[in-house]
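Incident log, support desk, overnight shift.

02:14 A customer reports that sequence design results differ from what the structure should imply. Their input is reproduced verbatim below. On-call engineer (initials T.W.) acknowledged and began investigating.
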């Protein structure tokens, strides 16, 4: 049977580097393989690449394990070095929007414009007392991080084609309604809260908590995330971390409600932190918002011989890499 082109998703985290390979099958995407290795100590911190040369050597090892040759690789920029904002601009031709947004960004970006890689995505046209405007989603990433990611991939012999952001990857592969929904992605050292309205990303905020705090509190190594599946969140041992998580999440939700004059009734929970039993129930009790554990979209074809524990691992750890890989064959 004719096999369409292959896409590779690369998700570089503080604790693990994950890679997924997919191909297109009609309207579906078939997973050809996936694997991970531990991130070398000191090479990545909160999404920031510190030692691209050392990271590149380890990426080459994962590339070899996965049998990657010249396939297109899609990676994600992540961490606090990704800056996002909704901007309201006077209506103008699309090619002029980005230039105008960059000029406006010089007033609020915490870094110099020259230090950033910037893109904009029009969301909707609106009209107020000052005239016709266009709302855009603005995203900027530190240029030196893009350069370090590119260098690490060059050293590994990977064909880095596109750099994406994590919520867009999740939106492609998580089951459920695609027009209006929110994600809480709890990783090792950070969490991310993202909201889509009418299929467009309108909010993406980095939160300061991660699931490694729960493991460390119990005296476990940060890399032992399978341990999180036995955490008893109602024991009282984790009350401080839960309250901290709830307070920060509530602030993000309230900001969304004020910014968009909209309610938020449902959040999809994903990432390594979703391993903790009952975390969806506790979040719902504390916030009044329904939380649902993420599942993979039915148009993603999973290897038929995959055991149940491996399917769970795929959901807990590989959703971002999977969504990045899918972009490579869209």
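02:41 Re-run completed on a clean worker. Output:
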């Amino acid at each position: 049977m004719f096999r369409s082109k292959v896409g590779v998703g690369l998700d570089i985290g503080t604790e693990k580097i994950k890679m997924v390979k997919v191909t297109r099958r009609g309207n579906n995407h078939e997973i050809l393989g996936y694997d991970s290795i531990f991130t070398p100590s000191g090479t990545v911190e909160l999404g920031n690449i510190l030692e691209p040369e050392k990271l590149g050597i380890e990426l080459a090892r994962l590339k070899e394990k996965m049998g990657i040759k010249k396939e297109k690789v899609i990676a994600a920029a992540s961490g606090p070095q990704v800056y996002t904002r909704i901007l309201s601009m006077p209506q103008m031709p699309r090619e002029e929007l980005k230039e105008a947004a960059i000029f406006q960004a010089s007033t609020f970006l915490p870094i110099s414009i020259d230090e950033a890689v910037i893109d904009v995505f029009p969301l909707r046209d609106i009209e107020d007392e000052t005239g016709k405007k266009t709302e855009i989603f603005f995203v900027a990433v530190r240029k030196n991080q893009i350069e370090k990611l590119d260098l690490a991939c060059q050293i590994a012999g990977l064909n880095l084609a596109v750099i994406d952001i994590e919520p867009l990857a999740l939106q492609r592969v998580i089951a459920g309604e695609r027009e209006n929904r929110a994600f809480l992605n709890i990783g090792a050292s950070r969490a991310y809260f993202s909201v889509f309205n009418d299929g467009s990303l309108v909010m993406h905020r980095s939160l300061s908590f991660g699931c490694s705090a729960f493991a460390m509190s119990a005296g476990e190594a940060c890399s032992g995330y399978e341990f999180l599946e036995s955490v008893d969140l109602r024991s009282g041992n984790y009350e401080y971390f839960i309250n901290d998580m709830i307070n920060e999440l509530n602030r993000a939700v309230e900001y969304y409600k004020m910014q968009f004059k909209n309610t938020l009734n449902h959040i999809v929970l994903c990432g390594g932190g979703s391993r903790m039993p009952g975390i969806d129930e506790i979040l719902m009790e504390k916030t009044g918002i329904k939380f649902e554990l993420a599942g993979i979209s039915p148009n993603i074809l999973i290897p038929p011989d995959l055991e149940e524990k491996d399917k769970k691992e795929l959901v807990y750890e590989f959703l971002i890499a999977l969504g990045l890989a899918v972009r490579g064959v869209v």
